[in-house]
Fold these 2 entries.
Entry 1:
Amino acid sequence: MCNNIFKAFLLCLFGFVLMGCSSESFKLEGNFPDAGEQTFRAVYVNEAGVQTIKALVEEGRFTMEGVAPNYTVLYLYGKNDKFIAKVAVKNGDNIKMRGTIKHSNLIEVKGSDVNEDWSDFRRENHLLYEEGKEHLLDKKIEEYIEHDGSRMAGLLLLLCDYSHLDDTKKVHELLNKIDEKARPASVLKAYTEMNAMMVAKNEPRKRFNSMMFYNENDSLEAFVPVRSYISILYFWGIDDARKDIVTELDSLYAKYDNKKQLQIVDVVLDSDTLKWKRALRRENTEWTHLWAVGGIMNKAVVDLQIKSTPEFFVLDSIGQPIYRGDSIEAVSKLINSKLKNRIDTKKNKSKSKKK
């Protein structure tokens, strides 16, 4: 995330130049068949500050309108504040979105060149997003900007999808490769304000310390991420459909059975411990199972702002989150990628020593 120095740098570098538009509003329409009926919420920044608009989703379809005289970035959320998509909007735009909530990186966006370019990039590189391969994704973004600095999608990729915004020297180099017309100051202003709000609310990428929960024997047990090279912390509810999740986690546990490599810890958020223990006996798995007293009101759970289950955190050896989300497929791909590379590196070093 962008630090205070970088935020100040952006504002000083570009100022708050406004770009006029004759129309008085923008429209956002979507068709997500798997959304069913729920309420969508959109958050964006205009000259009056942070704005929120809501729309009822019926049979997967919704329409919402807002006011943004200058380009800004709109964040779209679904049930339980599940993030769905980001789009660039300004008055006069009629943006149409199509896809599924489950595969948000494959959502197709039409209605403006900048959104079509941005969604095309995400669709073409959706596996890098889903597998958390930040270094490869960053390289793709750098290549995109260096190849064509005339597209505003390059600015949006840099601000919203690039993982090393704290490297101000590199970011400055990339910003200078984007044409002045393709980097409107209103987007930079909107991004810094939204970013500040999200950091204050969610504290993303905060390093995890040890946490205390109860185990199957009703004794306190600590989850300590630094015990392993990589950790999976999985929060679930007793009524969750988790057969596929258990199967995939069991496969990972068997594949990487050295706890110094991988530890898997699941934490149930329900008060019915008898039902929980029966479920564990039925599943007969060997990784660590814990129970959060108070469920979603448990202090550790509240601090993490977990609002729905399943919720996965993948943590590195110092407790830094490298993935947060509800996809076991994304978790599995990330774990296999990280640990396969680690194992292959160790094998190569071992061969070199023998020679």
Note: Residues 315 and 321 are 4 Å apart (CA to CA).
Entry 2:
Amino acid sequence: MNKKNIIICGIILFVLILITILVLVIDSNMDANSDIDNTDDNEDAVITSLEVVTDENDFFTVKNIINSFLELVKWNDADSLYNVINDNYINENGITLNNILTRIDYNYFSPNYVATDMYMRVYQNISYYFVDGYVLDFTDSDVLIDENVGFIVLIANNYYNIIPIEEGTNFEQFVNNYEYSDDVKVSGENAFETYDINVESKLITYIQEFINLLYADVTLAYDMLDEDAKEDFGGLSDFSNYRDAILNDLSPIVFSYSVTEADDFIRYNIVDNNQNVVTIEEFGIMDYTINLKNNNFVV
């Protein structure tokens, strides 16, 4: 084979190798693109594990959604209620526009919902908020309390639906054993505003809850005290004697506060608008103790 033929064969061989490499690269890119497409398809349906809600804005936004729902019940707004309640719940319980006010009837005069426990899980792109708490009902002459009132708030695309949890349900068992359905959709266009809560607003909420419970049930208010405060007040019976004095003098308005962070709680040292000193130790959202021992409440 002469020199010219050798060069031609070399060029042909080089071209064949180059073509083979290009084919392999193109094939590899096609496989990679196929994987990305498959991943995108799989990620369209977002599913997460059940978790305790730790974002304060989310927590209080969902709480406000429930209070808006209870306002609709209070004013017998059948059209709005029918639009807010999830379609699956409506269909499963035979609810119509004509009977919704008898099926969704909480009989509150002026309700304020207080969320105490909240879990969240995303299933098929819908955020399920499981909420347990109680209702303070402010009547003309008294403050009543309805405990263990639960809801599911479903949120998707900045709209929400509500599913009431049946009275008497064991909340923890209900949440852990809840059967999710692929058919659930957030129906209607019920928009909501995200509540951006700051520290001062949260502290006002905490002190106001304590004051409200003093009106509704002194035992529940006593249970909110830390152990030192319970001892200083001399037990539940003696604390009951201070009820009116505390209600007359304690203010939910925060004059000033300072913050100290510990390993498992945050301590807020607060001076209220009447110059009472209040110490709150917060272990989680709406999970806290209160201390009033530095104040001279007069019986």
Note: The beta strands are 51-52, 111-123, 126-138, 143-156, 159-164, 254-261, 266-272, 277-284, 287-291.
